[in-house]
From TrEMBL:
<dbReference type="Pfam" id="PF04101">
    <property type="entry name" value="Glyco_tran_28_C"/>
</dbReference>
<comment type="function">
    <text>Involved in protein N-glycosylation. Essential for the second step of the dolichol-linked oligosaccharide pathway.</text>
</comment>
<dbReference type="GO" id="GO:0004577">
    <property type="term" value="F:N-acetylglucosaminyldiphosphodolichol N-acetylglucosaminyltransferase activity"/>
</dbReference>
<dbReference type="GO" id="GO:0005783">
    <property type="term" value="C:endoplasmic reticulum"/>
</dbReference>
<dbReference type="InterPro" id="IPR007235">
    <property type="entry name" value="Glyco_trans_28_C"/>
</dbReference>
<protein>
    <recommendedName>
        <fullName>UDP-N-acetylglucosamine transferase subunit ALG13</fullName>
        <ecNumber>2.4.1.141</ecNumber>
    </recommendedName>
</protein>
<comment type="subunit">
    <text>Heterodimer with ALG14 to form a functional enzyme.</text>
</comment>
<keyword id="KW-0328">Glycosyltransferase</keyword>
<feature type="domain" description="Glycosyl transferase family 28 C-terminal">
    <location>
        <begin position="3"/>
        <end position="153"/>
    </location>
</feature>
<keyword id="KW-0256">Endoplasmic reticulum</keyword>
<dbReference type="GO" id="GO:0006488">
    <property type="term" value="P:dolichol-linked oligosaccharide biosynthetic process"/>
</dbReference>
<dbReference type="InterPro" id="IPR039042">
    <property type="entry name" value="Alg13-like"/>
</dbReference>
<keyword id="KW-0808">Transferase</keyword>
<comment type="similarity">
    <text>Belongs to the glycosyltransferase 28 family.</text>
</comment>
């Protein structure tokens, strides 16, 4: 099984570094994961210099094959191949992943302005669509997400948005 970790375009050093910790790797292994792909963005962590030029770094720890890289033009293929996505709480990432019906753990980057990511993560967890976690709680969240009965995210309904927009603009 494969897990994909993405932090978007910001720095989220704590999440990247903690994902590579023995605690998290052993939790992944216990749940049957054998592949870990990390999109590390501009984070500073132990291997940051080896991917700074845009290259990929591949290695193994705790019996898990790990791949790290900074950015790719699109993450669509990574979402498709993943059995679990661990992500910062960026709304675009969350919507993309949930619409694919993937298991998801969201770890808000609490260093960002007004901590808006935490509000979004908590709201979606309360609706049963995903698991929200802190960096330090990630190992437990990995176990919990597999026990949870997650609620499928509703499909995109463009007509609904158009209706809201028309009403807001006074067209109806």
């Amino acid at each position: 099984m494969r897990v994909f970790v993405t932090i978007g375009s910001t720095k989220f050093d704590d999440l990247v570094q903690h994902t590579l910790s023995e605690e998290v790797l052993l939790s992944l292994k216990k749940q049957g994961y054998r592949e870990l792909v990390i999109q590390c963005g501009n984070s500073t962590f132990e291997l940051a210099s080896s991917v700074a030029d845009g290259s990929e770094q591949k290695f193994e720890r705790e019996g898990i094959s790990i791949e790290c890289w900074k950015f790719k033009p699109t993450l669509e293929a990574e979402y498709d191949r993943a059995d679990l996505v661990v992500s910062h709480a960026g709304s675009g990432t969350i919507l993309d992943v949930l619409r694919k019906g993937k298991r998801m753990i969201v770890v808000p980057n609490e260093t960002l302005l007004d901590n808006h990511q935490k509000q979004l993560a908590v709201a979606l967890e309360e609706k049963g669509h995903l698991k929200a976690s802190t960096v330090s709680g990630l190992a437990q969240a990995i176990e919990d997400v597999h026990k949870a009965q997650l609620v499928p995210f509703p499909p995109l309904d463009g007509a609904r948005f158009a209706g809201i927009l028309d009403e807001t603009m006074g067209f109806i």
